Amino acid sequence: MIKLAGLIPLLPLIGFAIIGLGGKKLSKTIVSSIGCGSVLLAFALALGIFFQLHGHAQDVRVMDWIVTGNMHVDLAFLIDPLSVQFLLIITGVGFLIHVYSTGYMKDDENYDRFFAYMNLFVFFMLLLVMGNNYVMMFVGWEGVGLCSYLLIGFWFKNTAYNNAARKAFIVNRIGDLGFLLGMILIYVTFGHLDFNHVFGRASEMSHDESAVLNTIGILLFIGACGKSAQIPLYTWLPDAMAGPTPVSALIHAATMVTAGIYMIARSGVIFAQAEIASEVVAIVGLLTALFAATIGLFQNDIKKVLAYSTVSQLGYMFLGLGVGAYTGAVFHVTTHAFFKACLFLCAGSVIHAMGGEQDIRRMDGLKKALPITHLTFLIATIAIAGIPPFSGFFSKDEILSHAYDHNKLYWMLGVIGSMLTAFYMFRLYFLTFGGKFRGTHDQEHHLHESPKSMTVPLMVLAALSLVGGFIGIPLMKNGHLLDKFLRPSLDGAYSKLLEPNIIHLQHELTLMGIAVAAAAAAIYFAYSIFVKSGFLPQETEAEMSKPQRVIYNKYYVDEFYDSIIRKPLDWSSDKLYRFFELRVVDSFVNGIGTAVKWSANSVRYLQAGNVGSYIFAMVIAVIAILLIKLF
Question: What pLDDT, in 10s, does the model give residues 397-417?
Fold first, then answer.
């Protein structure tokens, strides 16, 4: 089965080719079958490999790819527990999102193009996590960037959506430059880009050589900040909500934003010896978690709230990676894929029922009209809020536990972020499903539950959000199934880390109790405000206090970037155009043209075709020659 690993990315690529070439000649039924079927088959293969792997890593070489000078890069796949874990997430959750899309996009005139892009997106993400070297990872990395641009701007007739797609593309290029420079430094340092070779050499390096590892780590992390939306490169992700909702679910749960987490976890051997780089990862992750959580408190667009929650949860994953909780970070990627995909698809179901309305101030009271959507949304909300025994509790607790061991302040700030998460997620839930309906009469008349093609994926994801955490219960170290599974891939990193202090069971239970009590208090606070008091968010900015207005406007970060980057660039471009382009370049080019034209006009008389002029010139020349000879 492992030898067939190459088929896993190939299947969605074939799906993309057939749907892309067939276009509108194919019926929607055939497009759906190919689009969903190719990802389902890939999931079945990944599942088969999972049962045959037994913790062993294996390279599946396809062919020589880049052979030039001393550089040799194979087209080969690395099949080990870490890559298989991501394969299952990408294809499993990706398949459910594909199925949901058959209902959500059924009336779209470009149904075939949508599924072609979705399959291409899955293909590049699979390539990213399966490559056995940094070059293949980078190809997948760039591919998902391209697909996000195509899918965010899917409804390209809307200028705002096109701008959002361009923003995502450009911001990601900044991060990609960091990744590219990191790759170059890896090659210069180790003479290779193959994972086994690089990590083998890195593990033998002494503490005195940590400077280069720190530099590599920080450059790679800059790349991760772009793809996984961390400070200061997070601004593209909330705007990416412009795309169809299944795209948001795919980007936030199963593909693009997890790429940075995978890259850092895969490079764990480097980061485990790069203390400064790891500390940077932890601090940036923690700040992002808090920063995004505060913005989520005042957003009123149902998808925007979820988008900022993704940025915040990704911050927790980076916090885990930075403090050495590699298993915890991958664990949170897994549980987050379940509840975040569920939340986004529920949001799509709500938007579908509300006829396109996304403002939660125009909703409320949807509990009865959308019972399945309501229940699944509630389960996923409890999971992300960190309430036991739902999945998000276990994965977040594992990260916070390692953060406590690393730095008590990190743990305290992490708990505060967890409280904010619980508050804004239940604010979203209460304002969407509780109380009395606040939409228009037409919207109320139109309310209905989504078809089975949309609700069945919701139920599966909600079930996973409920029980998914049991694969990694932190208290049961001997029974931590996910840690046991991932350990062969992460052993190289763990062996380079300082042995963590063993937290006593009673102590760990106390930490858990504090985190759960804090989340529960935040939920009750949200209940008091939005249910008992019936408070509604302000309709206009003028009604908000100054601090609320600052947070509502996302701390004016976009405006700040606009002022210090875009406007100066536009100004300097305009000046360069007016001075250098028009006055220097154009004057130089036009001067050459004028000189050629003048000289041509001057000498054209030499070949005017007038015999008399030729004889006259000849006589003058003869006289001139005689004069030269005589004198």
Answer: 999 999 999 999 999 999 999
For 3-8, the CB contacts below 8 A with 24+ separation are 3/60, 4/45, 4/48, 5/45, 5/49, 5/60, 5/77, 5/79, 5/130, 6/60, 6/62, 6/77, 7/41, 7/42, 7/45, 8/42, 8/45, 8/46, 8/87, 8/91, 8/126, 8/130
Residue pLDDT, tens place only, 95-145:
999 999 999 999 999 999 999 999 999 999 999 999 999 999 999 999 999
Question: What is the arithmetic mean of pLDDT over 596-623?
Answer: 83
Alpha-carbon distance 476 to 114, whole Å? 44
Query: Cα 103 vs. chain centroid, distance in angstroms?
Result: 25
Residue 490: which of 261, 316, 310, 289 has the closest Cα? 261
- In angstroms, the CA 15 to CA 28 distance is 14
Phi and psi at 54, nearest 5°, equal 55, 35
Q: Residue 228 is encoded by which pair of tokens?
A: 């996984």
Query: What does DSSP assign to residue 109?
Result: T
Mean pLDDT of the chain: 91
pLDDT score of 444 more than 90 = no
196: nearest Cα among 328, 329, 79: 79
Q: What is the dihedral of CA 329, 334, 337, 343, to 10 degrees?
A: -90
Tell me the percentage of the chain whose pLDDT exceeds 70: 98
CB distance 359 to 536 below 8 Å: no
> What is residue 566's predicted lDDT score, i.e. its pLDDT?
86
C-alpha to C-alpha distances, 274 to 215, 278, 316, 323, 479, nearest whole angstrom: 8, 6, 20, 12, 30
Whether residue 12 has a cis bond before it, omega within 30° of 0 = no
Band of residue 479 on the pLDDT scale cut at 50, 70, 90: low
* 198 SS3 class: helix
How far is 576 from 578, CA to CA, in rounded Å? 6
Q: Buried (b) or exposed (e) across 63-88, using 16+ Cβ within 10 A? A: eeeeeeeeeebbbbbbbbbbbbbbbb
Instruction: Tell me if 221 sits within 8 A of 277, measured CB to CB.
Output: yes
Phi, psi of 131 (to 5 degrees): -60, 145
Residue with tokens 């099949």: 79
Residue 499 has pLDDT above 60, yes or no: yes
Spatial contact of 249 and 97, defined as CB atoms under 8 Å apart: yes
Question: How far is it, in rounded angstroms, from Cα 310 to Cα 254?
Answer: 12
- Please report which residue ranges of 481-585 form alpha helices under DSSP H: 481-494, 505-527, 546-552, 557-561, 567-576
pLDDT tens per residue, range 305-351:
999 999 999 999 999 999 999 999 999 999 999 999 999 999 999 99
Q: Around Cβ 218, how many Cβ atoms within 10 Å?
A: 18
Note the Cα 134 to chain centre separation in Å.
18
CB 474 within 8 A of CB 404: no
